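Still learning. Show one?

>
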Amino acid sequence: MKYQILLVLLIFTASFQAFAQLSNSPDEYHTELGTLTVYPINHGSVAFTLNDKVIFVDPYGGADLFTQFDDPNLIFITDIHGDHLDSETLDALNTENTLFVVPQAVADQLERKDQLVIMDNGDAEEIMKLEVSAIPMYNLPGDEPIRHTKGRGNGYLINFGDMKVYLSGDTEDIPEMRNLEDIDIAFVCMNLPYTMDINQASDAVIDFQPSVVYPYHHRGQDIEEFKKLVDDADVDVEVKLKDWYSN
């Protein structure tokens, strides 16, 4: 009996240690423009700071999650769903001087017409001295119902100087993601039934091999197993696990 109790304690301790390792602490990366700091916020929300720039992607979950930042210079929105286009959070932020980078479907729902940069899939723009490309994000044909139709939303590729950062938005395992090259940091979604599972996501990551990948937008998925799948493939990809849901 005592050995069974010891075994349970060991399993509990190992599980607790694995959980305790997850945090939403920021990470810093050196670029030719200065230090890029990456902040995991909540679900599919990410923040970046670079010198005097403050950038939010899909701010969601309430303005209280963003109190550590100055007012945003740029906000990227990927899609019309409420966990990406969160009107309540946007209305509570001070965005008077903010530029919004959005697909047309999002622009149709925003009143800030003079603050919008509208991008279609495949477009490329220089925005505040950052090169930005709109990458398709969609569900593959045959998945019913298709929750993300091709052309409606954008993933984004942002060049912070010499550092290329990819944000998948809500996408499945699409060729446009697999065909990406020389990505330094990737944020890849994985949640069912809306995007893809960890097997699709890991297989795509193993294919396009970003230097660093953050699984995000992953509620309900086993990201530890995702990391194992990527690590076992013996590719030069660092998987960074963060706590996106403590908030």
Q: What stands out?
A: Residues 1-20 have pLDDT under 50 and may be disordered. The longest helix spans residues 2-20. The first strand starts at residue 27 and ends at 31. The chain is about 20% helix and 30% strand.
